Amino acid sequence: MSKKKKKQNTRLVKAGRDFAAELYSFLIDKSAKGASLKVIFKWAGKTGQLDGVFDAIENLVSEGKIEEYAPDIFRAKQKTAAINTMVGIVDMTQSGSAYVIIDGHLYDVYVPSHKTNRAFNGDTVRVKITALGKKKKPDGEIVEILKRGKELFIGKVDINDKFAFGITDDRFNNYDFYIPNEEIKKHKIVSGDRVIMRIKDWPPTMKNPIAQIVSKLSQPGNHSSDMEAILVETGINYIFPKEVEQQAEELPTEITKAEIKRRRDMRDIFTITIDPYDAKDFDDAISYRKLENGFIEIGVHIADVSHYIIPDGPIDKEAYSRGTSVYLVDRVIPMLPEKLSNNVCSLRPHEEKLTFSAIFEMDDKGHIVNEWFGKTVIYSDRRFTYEEVQEIIESKSGEYVDEILVINKISTLLREKRFASGAISFETQEVKFILDENFVPTGLYVKERKEAHMLIEDLMLLANRRVAFHLSKNFTKVPFVYRVHDTPDIQKLEEFGENAKRFGHKLKLDSPKNISAELNRLMNDIKGKPEQNILESLAIRCMAKAVYTTKNIGHYGLAFEHYTHFTSPIRRYPDLMVHRILANVLDNHTLLYANREQLEDKCRHSSATERKAMEAERESVKYKQVEYMTKHVGESFDGVISGITTWGVFVEIVENKCEGMIHVDNIRDELMYDEARRRLVSLTNSTNYELGNKIRIKVQKADLATRKLEFIPDNIE
């Protein structure tokens, strides 16, 4: 390049930088609408700086000051970063309005439908607080979409002469997708086809987003296709990129002598795993031995995933993106590739494994005399299922009976202390399915939690609590990942008390001190009764959502001042972050996450992926419940009214916990909705429909496409 050209180029860059500040001010004045390139060029022409336009735009975009939010349309980002804005997750309603869930805040921000700014359910957005609504709950306006909750959508194609639309299955999505004709021809789509779509563009002048077709799906009723649809709808990535699979295959798996020397060797100590009979990823083991000083030693050993995964490598980035494993009725969508989750990291029996351990020296009352945290190597002597351990506990006989009974005694003592401290005993009823070889449900049952389940749970809680305490007390300046649970909303609890009263249960919830005791009493009273599932679900809705955060406010439900997730790094990314932080401080290294705000962003992301996983899991259960009930259309069942709305009555079938709706149109009566008591009142002096009423229903329809059951009344008590 000649000297002359170099000089000219320098002048242009300098001009671009000077011009950038003027362009930025110009775009700020244009607010959220921004300006097109045509408008920018027209304005720049008046200033005589046309040759600096592209340099200025490039500089401002790279600095994050402006964005191209539509093709050739730019806007300033400063307006959306105002002090009175917060970042949260969109929870859309069927009416088109939304709530933005803000981690760490008791109240969600209500956003009316005309202020959702093209947001979808699950999007991460910036919301501006515009007012305090009823009872000082915030109202707001979505001012910026930071990240889409999902990229893919499911819908049916409706083709007209000149255009086509994808009508999404998602009842919380108020936008149909415009599909160009070339997409229809490319994929040989006919009207009524069910497809997976991706947003390609959304020009500000268009009411609907433009979509491209990713693939065609079978019609509802095909098991594999419908499970895939659930994953797409909830934004779950179920295919690992090739580079991730490749890196997993290339990982060295041999445990060297040098690595063993760096760790506490616990291979000769009695160690077992206890898991479901169909589990493949064993990420926790427990060890036990009597010590010469008369105390006992309980070890909680967790798969050392951090040893194998390079931070910010392909596997780590994919694991962070997923955030958690997802457990559908018929399959697991793992956070880590199978070679890691089911093989290298899994604490399989009769194999040496690398672990990160919390080891406790205790007396026979469960008091901790001494504790140690660090890297270990173990050898699992036996893989137990929950059923096998339960049999040993009940019969007091069997393999390793003495060790298991002592461990169970310690677990029971820990549980009693927790409840004495104010922990709440929520034991939600989990529906499990019996599937044939084609994954068709032939039966279902409610999973029962017994002592064997609680044995493992109590020891995992102990490790999580003590790791959090150790970090918070001894390394106060280290940003850390806590699992927190805020205090409940008293108003919601009062409403719950009224609902419980309709089932014949009186609660005294007038002060925070007696909330846990009263709820525990209720949970004990309703165990095994028809209303158990309904009241447990309603009680949980009164509680704040447990989230990940760097701000430790304690865990209300568990009655712990310090709590984290340390025990499942194979299936939860926050646990992997905790392992890395703990290892770093134990080795006296520099801070791993020195920037607390960046770690808080990772916590926020982890909470969001957890919610997506829970949604997918719930939808898969609903799908199988509806599929199971397709064989019972026309049959009658005993039910309990579980919810009331203006348009119908929700009923849960006592026998199998399947929930459906009786539409008001199918009730032969004149009804009025009583909002204060949330009931449907008969205007003909007939029977009122209230929460908790027993009702005989008949299954009218089981719709796999919508995953909904429709009932009609048989009679009511």
Q: Summed up, what is this model?
A:
With 717 residues, this protein is of the alpha+beta class.
Can you offer a commentary on this structure?
The protein is an alpha+beta fold and 717 residues long. The protein has six domains: 3-79; 82-147, Beta Barrel (OB fold (Dihydrolipoamide Acetyltransferase, E2P)), CATH 2.40.50; 152-217, OB fold (Dihydrolipoamide Acetyltransferase, E2P), CATH 2.40.50; 242-486 and 547-620, no CATH class; 490-543, no CATH class; 633-716, Nucleic acid-binding proteins (OB fold (Dihydrolipoamide Acetyltransferase, E2P)). Helix 1 (3-29) packs across helix 3 (53-62), helix 5 (223-233) runs antiparallel to helix 17 (596-629) and helix 13 (490-502) runs antiparallel to helix 15. The chain is globular.
What does the radius of gyration come to?
Answer: 29 Å
DSSP helix fraction = 25-40%
Mean pLDDT: 87
- Number of folding domains? 6
Q: Biggest β-sheet: count, sense, barrel? A: 7 strands, mixed
Measured between the Cα atoms of the first and last residue, the distance is: 92 Å
Q: Which word captures the global form? A: globular
Strand line-up in the sheet with most strands? 14-21-20-17-16-15-22
Work out the number of β strands: 33
Unreliable stretches (pLDDT < 50, length at least 5) are 1-17
How much strand content do the residues show?
25-35%
Counted by DSSP, the helix tally is 17
Task: Kindly name the structural category.
Answer: alpha+beta
